[in-house]
Amino acid sequence: MDSALIPKGVKRCPLWQFLLFTGAVGIVLLWGVYAMLLCWFKGLNQTNMNDYYGFALWIWADLAVIAVGGGAFFTGLLRYIFGKDALKNIINYAVLIGFICYSSALLILAIDIGQPLRGWFIFWHANVHSMLTEVAFCLSAYFGVLTIEYIPLILENRQIDKVPFFHHLGHNMHEIMAVFAATGAFLSFFHQGSLGGVAGVLYGRPFAFREGIFIWPWTFFLYTWSAAACGPCFTILVTKITEKVVRKKLVKDNAIELLAKISGWMLLTYTMAKTYDTWYWFTVTAPSKGFALMDFYSNNPLYGIWMLVVEIGICGLIPAVILITDKGRKNSMTLWIAVILAVIGVCLNRWVMVLQVMAVPVMTFDQWVLYIPSWQEVATTILPLAYGIILIAISYRYLPVFPNEPELNPIEPLNEEETAVESPVELEQELKPAEA
Amino acid sequence: MKHNKAQKFGMVIDLDKCTGCGSCMVACMSENNVPFRKDESDKFLSITWMRVYRLTNGKPFPNTDICYLPRPCMQCAGQHEGHSPCVSVCPAIATDYSTETGIVSQIYTRCFGCRYCMASCPYHARYFNWWDPIWPDGMEKYLSPNVSPRMRGVVEKCSFCFHRYQLAKEKAFMEGRRNIEENEYQTACTQACPAGAVTFGDLNNPDHAVYNLVKPDHKHSGRPTNPHAFRLLERLGTNPKVYYLSSRKWVRQVGDNYLKNEAKVKKPVHHG
Fold this sequence. Notes:
The complex is a heterodimer of chains A (436) and B (272). Chain A has 436 residues and is mainly alpha-helical. Chain A has helices at 15-42, 57-68, 70-81, 88-112, 121-124, 131-155, 158-161, 164-175, 177-200, 218-246, 253-288, 306-324, 326-330, 332-359, 375-398, 405-408, 416-420, 424-428, and strands at 212-213, 216-217.
């Protein structure tokens, strides 16, 4: 039924199956939308946040999706600026994942503020000293860049591409994509960094506070570094999950392995930097404020020291070692383990730097605070996930996201009667028509 | 025309005098139109610009000692004046530091409720309006006309009764004076304290009581030179303008965090 929209040379599931899948995910999406509307119309009293936990699940989700969305800028940087040509086979998907992550982050921010209609104040009344201002500007600008990077892919849809204007527009946008990739990398450096700065500048919160260079605390650099390291791991992870779901190989191994290798080295160096930062923090910074390491961790399992061990050791060092070794990257199982651990690690880092910061008492007579999100918070956090799955499903079905797909998955030629209806132009391209 | 000398309004609370009666809290809520709900049992959701903590020295009877610690906004100046933890992070300049008065303001109509300032404040002196304020029938007639009630979704905090400062300045202006007297600008909590534990005034003015109580060393971020005076979390460098007095060592040590080898007092206990 929708075969005219499906890229040539690839096979897609029947429309009813596609609609059933997106419909099921759509129900989850609607649940999230309902919770979002509750928050907008009734206010943030719908959440379980309180005056101790002013930052909670959403801010974590925001930081986490931006971190894992870092695959877009870093892959773009490698592909267009450093000329890693093999990555052309995964760059489309990296951009799409980045687009989903960043649009989700903006949506979450719009829900998270107490006066959503005043959201524009952050631009209009900008405080240039605030890290959050930098986040807002760079995030919005980079989302614009991602949109520009995503548009050529949309224009490659079979039907849209038939319009000469869109065909040429898409072609010309491809030609200058390096400029956008460079802009994206520049903006990402600053917004990933300033997100790190959001926690690092809190000198009233010794758990988060870090020293640094000029106005930038060390977390500024660590956040950019970790996003560049773990973002591509998330791209690989989502690619692998997509391959499992559609039961096809979509990206050639050389692209995955190259990205994994670079990620591995980034992760290893990041882990070393993070270890040094942690050591300096608990031997110099925190003691100068009167805090010992264990003052920041409690007996409560949610706030235990195990988090530090898991974050740096299990989710930092182990995946880094797997990814930098040839065998580790080439073995499917270890690659899966490495990318999952890396993604968990970066999400855990963001979790700690948001939630634990709020929980640790600073005044001597204060107390540890526990927070459990309300269903509205959970639903609105799952909302971007559902939205992401739907956008991926639609993009995968109707856009040539994976350039390697026709080559890796040659489809059976159709019978003569069906091929006869195809236009001569399409036959010249030696591509098999798509099946609905 | 000669400029006025910058003032630095501050508060000194004598913890040896405080009985924990809560008059300061009540006066503050009443003066500043602080909203409340039917059920205020969840203190993490209660808005208390002035909050009284009950502390004990953690020792068993008969050595138990109690101290009540009222905690308004500390009006931090930061390491260089104006770099308060909250002011420096607010993305929309909805909170600002006045170098004229030393008071940290909160502009309710500018705040869009990101709560970054709350995350930055180690004293938990900032509160979010999770609900729209709803006053019991008829009570809206008793609201102070000098303080705007806040809407849902914005942050609020103690302002050192800044409207009183404005009224005092207006009065002085009408009388042809440039400066206000010490007794012309006093916060509601100061006036309400039956024990006289709260003193308020200009920390820059040697004629004011607050100055003489703590003798701030302005060359060192206003650190008190009175050995019985201390500020909360001095080591963080927030440079607060609220000082506490106590003759008891354990109370003074409660004010800050110390490593094990620095202080050997038992950790104090907080009771609500």
